[in-house]
Design brief:
five-stranded parallel β-sheet, Rossmann fold, alpha/beta, 10 helices, 297 residues, binds nicotinamide-adenine-dinucleotide
Length: 297
């Protein structure tokens, strides 16, 4: 069995996958390496296009180590009888914890304070923050990550509301608000946890930001496309949005104008970057590949 790992992967994960067969790690020419491969593993860097898999007669599985399948042409895989798998739950807690950290950081000006001190300043008066207890957290998309964040925020005394049309999971914590305008008007902090779809792309637009509370905090650890970054820039500049914290961007690596704003806190798509999440992703991949490749031969 030959397994091509096209993208950067933790050493431990590569070792675990090595137990299933011969691993070809980060080949220079992925297309050529696929000619005699049974499985291909990618993260988000490699684009699995029709072209890439055109000459891979033995390829049975394409595995995405992570959640989003934006970089995999699923129709092209299906047409060739190639199963596409991913590890959707493995990084959920890591992302929920990052979102919570970003909320706390934005409420207490932690990142701003850090930068001021590193710049030799001691300006306590500019750093008066807010407490999250009693505030309303509005979660857009109450799925795996959204619900984990809801549970953590509830434990810290926040009220949790969500905009998530059915089907959806009740958990005794969240109050679903089905009218988007009402939802936007109720939240002190809006945290986004939806996939990028035609319905969610640009959901955080200038028009929808205008419906949010003055001084709202916006957190995005889902997909960059959900936010109109120009509209967010204008809204932070005008003070309508008091702060924003982003882990994901329309174009990555991000190098845009939001970097200029003191109240916008940025991380470089590190939602799933914890030791624990990577361990879980590795274990899940090994289990799924075993299942798929064992089944087919
Ligand atoms: P999920 O599928 O479990 O949950 C998504 C939820 O969004 C579902 O409950 C769904 O009903 C809801 N939804 C769909 N369309 C909607 C709409 N138009 N309006 C409101 N709700 C809608 O997904 P998840 O595993 O929780 O992942 C959420 C997001 O986080 C995804 O975009 C994923 O790619 C992203 N993610 C980011 C990182 C990172 O590194 N920052 C890591 C993992 C996942």
């Amino acid at each position: 069995m030959r397994i091509v790992i096209a993208d950067q992967m933790e050493e431990e994960v590569v070792k675990g996958i090595g137990a299933l067969g011969q691993v070809v790690y980060k080949p220079q020419d992925v297309k050529a390496a696929l000619q005699d491969a049974d499985a291909l593993i990618v993260r988000s860097a490699t684009k699995v296009t029709k072209e890439l898999i055109a000459d891979a007669p033995g390829l049975k599985v394409v595995a995405r180590a992570g959640v989003g399948l934006d970089n995999v042409d699923q129709a092209a895989c299906k047409a060739k009888g190639i199963k596409v798998i991913n590890t959707p739950g493995a990084s959920s807690n890591a992302v929920a914890e990052l979102a919570l950290g970003l909320i706390l950081g934005a409420f207490r000006n932690i990142q701003k304070a850090h930068h001021q001190m590193k710049g030799g300043k001691w300006e306590k008066k500019t750093l008066t923050g807010n407490e999250i207890e009693g505030k309303t957290l509005g979660i857009i998309g109450y799925g795996r990550i959204g619900a984990l964040l809801g549970k953590k925020a509830d434990a810290l005394g926040m009220k949790v509301i969500s905009f998530n049309p059915p089907p959806r999971q009740e958990d005794g914590i969240v109050k679903f608000v089905d009218d988007l305008d009402s939802f936007l008007g109720m939240a002190d902090v809006v945290s986004i946890h939806v996939p990028a779809t035609p319905q969610t792309i640009n959901l955080v637009s200038a028009a929808n930001i205008a419906k949010m509370k003055n001084g709202v905090i916006i957190i995005n650890t889902s997909r960059g496309e959900i936010i109109d970054e120009d509209a967010l820039y204008d809204a932070v500049k005008s003070g309508k949005v008091a702060g924003a914290a982003l882990d994901v961007y329309r174009s990555e690596p991000y190098n845009g104008k939001l970097l200029e704003l003191e109240n916008v806190y940025l991380t470089p798509h590190i939602g799933a970057s914890t030791k624990e999440a990577q361990d879980k992703i590795g274990a899940e991949l090994v289990r799924l590949l075993n299942e798929e490749l064992g089944k087919k031969g």
